[in-house]
Design brief:
Strand order of the largest sheet: 1-2-4-3-5-6-7-8
Number of strands: 8
CATH architecture: 3-Layer(aba) Sandwich
CATH superfamily: Alpha/Beta hydrolase fold, catalytic domain
Distance between the termini: 56 Å
Strand content: 15-25%
Oligomer: single chain
Helix content: 25-40%
CATH class: Alpha Beta
Length: about 325
């Protein structure tokens, strides 16, 4: 296998040079990095006219799943769009405030209500538990749409990295169960394939970047435990889904210089093959999570603007319009 890799974007390369990187995760390292895997949300809310509310949704096993609801303050609460956010962190770290600056931009742009879910993390929670937690949050949103002032026909499911994989799994689950309605899904560098054997996965074995093949394998092992082959649900690893027909319009982006590049482009290709609509962007020289880590970089600003422009095009017109 060649070790040749797409070059990093020059600006990102310079920024990444100052960041301490690791190529592997272990239980001991995870315990050390977990406390630093999320930033406080309060600084992001300063200067913004946002109302914040903390609620819970009950999981099937009775565990209460925390949800944070962010709504535009002093706004007409009738028929707003909703962005349901699932955070990244390799299935093993992060919380509902991780990367929350991304959907908060859509609150600013569209007056969207943003709901973020604190799904349970692996290895403490394994198998279907994280995606089921996320699905229960979606059900809660649909059931409380009038109270939240949202249009149930304009719920967008979105997530980054592990959260992108969970967003894809939740969308498959909602399709197969017949509810709730999802208007669109936004999958940002989604973690879709537990097999971890694509060309891009092999290219980024032992780095460089912030998420290597070895780290990816650790995250999947934590989530799946002893499950293998046919025991792994497509809701947990959406790349396994046989049928991608009937999904809502989909946005997928990834970097050319990251582990998930090939599984993400394959997922878009299979949506098209099933007659669905997907928009795919592979950002040249982008490493995993580049736009979240370095939003000031030109390529990051372009990626974020492009997502927002896509949402502006695809969100259905409000019924109150």
């Amino acid at each position: 296998m060649t070790t040749a890799r797409p070059a990093l974007d020059p600006e990102l390369h310079e920024l990444l040079a100052d960041m301490p990187l690791m190529s592997r995760l272990s239980p001991e390292i995870l315990a050390q990095v977990r406390p630093f895997s999320s930033m406080p949300v309060e600084p992001l809310l300063e200067g913004r006219a946002i109302d914040r509310r903390e609620v819970t949704a009950a999981s099937p096993d009775g565990t209460m799943i925390p949800l944070s609801v962010f709504s535009p303050a002093n706004a007409d609460r009738a028929a707003a769009p909703c962005v349901y956010w699932m955070h990244g962190g390799g299935m093993v770290m992060g919380d509902r405030f991780s990367q929350i600056d991304i959907p908060l931009e859509w609150l600013d742009e569209f007056g969207a209500v943003v709901v973020s879910v604190d799904y349970r993390l692996a290895p403490e929670a394994s198998g279907m538990i994280p995606v089921e937690d996320c699905y229960q949050g979606l059900l809660w949103i649909a059931e409380h749409s009038a109270e939240l002032g949202i249009d149930p026909a304009r719920i967008v499911v979105a997530g980054a990295s592990a959260g992108g994989g969970l967003a894809a799994g939740v969308t498959l689950l909602a399709r197969d169960l017949g509810a709730p309605t999802i208007a669109a899904q936004v999958l940002i560098g989604p973690m879709l394939d537990y097999r971890n054997t694509t060309t891009s996965s092999l290219q980024y074995s032992n780095g460089p970047g912030v998420w290597t093949r070895e780290m990816n394998g650790f995250g999947w092992r934590c989530l799946l435990g002893d499950l293998t082959g046919d025991e792994v649900s497509a809701y947990v690893s959406p790349a396994l889904a046989d049928d991608l027909a009937g999904l809502p319009t989909t946005y997928i982006d990834t970097g050319s210089a990251e582990v998930f590049r090939d599984e993400d482009t394959d997922y878009a290709t299979r949506i098209w093959a099933a007659g669905g609509q997907a928009e795919l962007h592979v950002w040249a020289g982008g490493f995993h999570g580049f736009d979240a880590l370095y939003p000031q970089a030109d390529i990051s600003a372009t990626a974020r603007r492009t997502r927002t422009a896509w949402l502006a095009r695809v969100l259905p017109t409000s019924r109150a319009a």
